[in-house]
Design a protein that fits this description.
Number of helices of chain B: 11
CATH architecture of the largest domain in chain A: 3-Layer(aba) Sandwich
CATH topology of the largest domain in chain A: Rossmann fold
Shape of chain A: elongated
Oligomer: heterodimer
Bound molecules: adenosine-5'-diphosphate, magnesium ion
Radius of gyration of chain A: 23 Å
Low-confidence stretches of chain B: none
Largest interface: A-B, 30 and 21 residues
Number of strands of chain B: 0
Order of helices and strands of chain A: EEEHEEHEHHHEHEHEEHEEEHEH
Low-confidence stretches of chain A: none
Number of domains of chain B: 1
Number of strands of chain A: 14
Structural class of chain B: mainly alpha
Number of domains of chain A: 2
Structural class of chain A: alpha/beta
Helix content of chain A: 25-40%
Radius of gyration of chain B: 19 Å
Distance between the termini of chain B: 23 Å
Distance between the termini of chain A: 37 Å
Mean pLDDT of chain A: 92
Strand content of chain B: under 5%
CATH superfamily of the largest domain in chain A: P-loop containing nucleotide triphosphate hydrolases
């Protein structure tokens, strides 16, 4: 595996606030690396530093083995950035936007025209390319934001929460497009606070919290500890006051409830095969069960276990 | 760089206020003030002559509010940020914005002057003196464009910058008697007016036109260019693409 990008001990503070704290990770050529973390984890700060727009306090970044500080132009020429906030001109057509930004990478003439067309088709905006983006829906703006970053065929595409606030259809379209790009050889860093998206498309994951890396690996690796766990989510008719007796059942590891205490989550060993016991105990104590689902291990649980809090509130 | 300049000029053309400001506004000011004060001027130098020259002078100074728009108008901010992802240098980014602003304003102002001169409403001098006056306006414009850029990169806020520049400029312009003869108010007003440097440069222009005197011309050009250069230096130090 070739290492495309190497981030070593990166730190960045805003005043007293350490937004990125001694962060290290590698990105391998041809992979989608998911950067997962709650709001404020330091994802965007990291991305802005990688894009060359923000200085940092300490650490090193290498792109194909070269120090990015000393080779800023060369590195930038190989990056495609999709920032968290939509970034293009609202008052010129989508086509003009993509063309202008692509031309900054030295594309001209027929190649330029072709690449612009290709990028717009790729995100599904070909038909409305002559309209000004200010008339676009949120999802279309997000897609144009991506088109502006890919027309020049970057080696590394970095996306910062590209699906925030859009409909599921546009979201799926974007996720599909990113996978297609990966399959065509583009390396991708995909930043989000939605663990479902990471599970859907990432080859490897770096989980961040409070500026630090708290876990790294493939999804299988991260979920390894959860292969032996069942998570029962039980919805009750009335709030449950006492549930400590459930801990007496063999295999029960952890029990959490929501605020109104009508939904309880019970983490148990898969091998214990104790669902019957749990349910009968609950009924025996006079609870009425409304609904029950079984969850498999997911990144949300990994995050919860590592930090004691949820990815999203 | 050419692509950048072209885009920045397009952006300027997408703002109707800016276009009106540079095209019609100086002409309208000339007509308005020329008409209002026509009785106070004689045959040789009409009120239109005076106000044409004074208003072009005023508008060249006021052009310092255009650079903050090119640099950091909200509408353009996000697009401008994306430019910085590309392999272009900071110098290219602010340089193209300065140049675009200059070309845009200079284009309109030259047109304004040619129209006023062409319809014989205002005389900006004859023969070589016309060109010297035009050149002086353009040199001054270089300074005001850079000055506006320097102030807004220091303040980092377009609205605030333009409010400050506008307030200071208009106060100075009024007290230096650009809009109406302030000496009517008494000798104190006259001495204030003469103390304000705005007046000196305007007087130089009048001297070129009416006395055909180019005394100090070169000095003024060099100093103005130098001051403009210092402003560009400030921009180079302070310019940030992301806010
Ligand atoms: N421009 C800034 N000035 C000061 N603090 C900032 C700035 N940008 C981000 N921060 C702070 O840095 C931390 C990380 O923010 P950010 O990188 O945006 O996180 P994320 O993208 O993961 O939500 C937060 O505490 C945030 O408040
Ligand atoms: Mg963010």
């Amino acid at each position: 595996m070739e290492t495309l990008l190497e981030v070593k001990n990166l730190s960045k503070s805003y005043g007293n606030n350490l937004a990125v704290n001694n962060l290290s990770f590698d990105v391998y050529t041809g992979e989608i690396l998911g950067l997962l973390g709650p709001n404020g984890a330091g994802k965007s700060t990291t991305i802005t530093i990688l894009s060359g727009l923000l200085s940092y306090n300490s650490g090193e970044i290498y792109f194909l083995g070269k120090d990015v500080r000393k080779n800023s132009k060369q590195v930038k020429a190989n990056l495609g950035i999709v920032p968290q906030d939509i970034a293009f001109y609202e008052e010129i057509s989508a086509y003009q936007n993509v063309k202008f930004f692509a031309s900054l990478y030295g594309l001209t003439g027929n190649t330029l025209e072709e690449r612009v067309k290709e990028a717009l088709e790729f995100v599904g905006l070909e038909e409305r390319k002559n309209e000004k983006p200010k008339t676009y829906s949120g999802g279309m703006k997000r897609r144009l934001n991506i088109a502006c970053a890919i027309a020049h065929h970057p080696k590394l595409l970095i996306l910062d929460e590209p699906t925030v606030g859009i409909d599921p259809q546009s979201r799926n379209r974007i996720l599909d497009a990113i996978q297609t790009l990966r399959n065509q050889g583009t390396t991708v860093i995909y930043t989000t606070h939605y663990m479902e998206e990471i599970e859907q498309i990432a080859d490897r994951v770096v989980i961040m919290d409070k500026g630090q890396k708290i876990a790294e690996g493939t999804i299988e690796e991260l979920l390894e500890d959860y292969n032996n766990i069942n998570l029962y989510c039980i919805t009750l008719e009335k709030p449950i006051e006492d549930f400590l007796y459930l801990y007496d059942i063999p295999g029960v590891r952890q029990i959490t409830t929501d605020k109104v205490k009508k939904r309880i989550k019970i983490e148990t060993d898969k091998k214990a095969d104790n669902l019957n016991k749990i349910l009968s105990k609950l009924l025996e104590k006079g609870n009425q069960i409304q609904d029950m689902t079984t969850e498999k291990g997911n990144l949300e649980m990994v995050f919860l276990d590592l930090t004691g809090k949820k990815l999203r509130d | 760089m050419r692509v950048l300049i072209k885009q920045d000029i397009k952006n300027l053309f997408s703002n109707p206020v800016t276009i009106l400001f540079c095209s019609i506004y100086p002409l309208a000011l000339t007509l308005l003030f020329g008409f209002l004060f026509s009785s106070q001027y004689g045959e040789m130098v009409s009120s239109y002559d005076f106000y044409g020259i004074a208003m072009m002078y005023y508008i060249v100074l006021a052009a310092s509010t255009i650079t903050p728009i090119t640099f950091m108008e909200k509408r353009l901010q996000k697009g401008n940020e994306r430019i910085a992802y590309a392999p272009v240098s900071k110098v290219q980014i602010y340089g193209s914005k300065l140049l675009a602003t200059y070309l845009f304003t200079a284009g309109f102002f030259i047109l304004d002057i040619l129209v006023l001169q062409g319809i014989h409403l205002v005389s900006f001098g004859s023969g070589v003196y016309f060109w010297l006056v035009l050149l002086l306006y353009l040199v001054l414009l270089f300074f005001t464009i850079s000055f506006g850029g320097a102030i807004c990169t220091i303040i980092q806020n377009q609205d605030l910058t333009n409010k400050i520049i506008g307030a200071v400029l208009n106060t100075l312009a009024i007290f230096s008697g650009i809009f109406f003869p302030i000496s009517n108010l008494g000798t104190w007003a006259d001495s204030i007016s003469n103390a304000i440097p705005l007046k000196w440069l305007l007087n130089t222009i009048f001297q070129i036109i009416y006395d055909q005197s180019i005394q100090g011309y070169l000095g003024i050009v060099v100093i103005t260019m130098l001051l403009g250069g210092i402003c560009v230096g400030i921009i180079h130090k302070k310019y940030k693409v992301i806010s």
